[in-house]
């Protein structure tokens, strides 16, 4: 989603590299300035402009550190589940944990998605308690702001539109229910696009009714979310074709020994199986596929002599509708073969 170019490294935390996009500097300055000129004078009354600016910068830094910790939450749980984290990136609309791949199961997706908001909720509570119990004056104003910002982060992120965390929770739920990563992603990203259109519409209304700056900001967020949802939708479409686990080329196949005779296959295996396609395995590797009806291609008097390995078809995607392949990856389609217990037998490329 975001390139690694055009940014700078900030620090490492728990083994994760945190870097910032140049666009982040803009929002860091804007936020510090608007806190110094709006929030702090309103809360604390009249005071020194330099002091307010200092408070603004401290608050903005605490908020950005909260964003980093939110992403650390996602990253930590992802790493626990075998997903490699390329880094945490701050950019104009917040932060993102860059993972080298999507979670492979709904449960992992759910845990990774909830980890970030959980951290933000804990930070909101912590800062709120500090502002209520320990802090006074400027310190209380700063911590209250950070508490509210973290709470807002939880609420915003839990909106069920992909790629927001709530959208990932939605996808995990649908994925679990429908057993299809592709279908789940399609629905969750469509929801994400509706949410994005909602932001854009609301932003436009705000711009017309006088809140020009905030409205424009919401329009930009909507545009960004729409773009992200759409590219995720395309990625899922791509995966549907490329990744056999979920696409049409995923098919339940029972592995059979290639040394088996066609006669044995016809008389013993076929009557005892509900499947119509079998993965022919030789020396532990799937060498092709044999369909139930391919027995007919062998004359009956030869069936005791010919082995299934001899009639196995290297599986090709000849029946696929390539016009729907958006990334033209059909030439390198892989498929995975699972046995009836769901164990991966082989991957053919
Ligand atoms: Zn998040």
User: What's the β-strand tally?
Assistant: 9
Radius of gyration based on Cα positions? 28 Å
Structural class, please? alpha/beta
Largest sheet: 4 strands, mixed
Strand/helix succession: EEHHEEHHHHHEHEEHEE
The number of distinct structural domains comes to 3
Global outline: elongated
- Number of H- or I-type helical stretches: 9
- Strand content range: 5-15%
- Report the uncertain regions: 241-251, 316-336, 338-343
Give every kind of bound small molecule, once each. zinc ion
Helix content: 40-55%
Distance between the termini: 27 Å
Strand arrangement, largest sheet?
1-2-3-4
Round the mean pLDDT to the nearest integer and report it: 80
What does this entry look like structurally?
Helices cover 54% and strands 15% of the residues. The chain has three domains: 1-158, no CATH class; 167-242; 254-348, Roll (CBS-domain), CATH 3.10.580. The protein has a four-stranded mixed beta sheet. A three-stranded mixed beta sheet has the order 5-6-7. The model is unreliable at 241-251, 316-336 and 338-343 (pLDDT under 50). The chain has helices at 22-44, 49-80, 106-134, 137-157, 165-178, 181-208, 212-242, 262-269, 308-311, and strands spanning 7-13, 16-21, 85-91, 94-99, 254-257, 277-282, 285-291, 335-338, 344-348. It is α/β, with parallel strands linked by helices and 349 residues long. The protein contains nine helices and nine strands. The chain is elongated. Helix 3 runs antiparallel to helix 4 and helix 5 (165-178) runs antiparallel to helix 6.
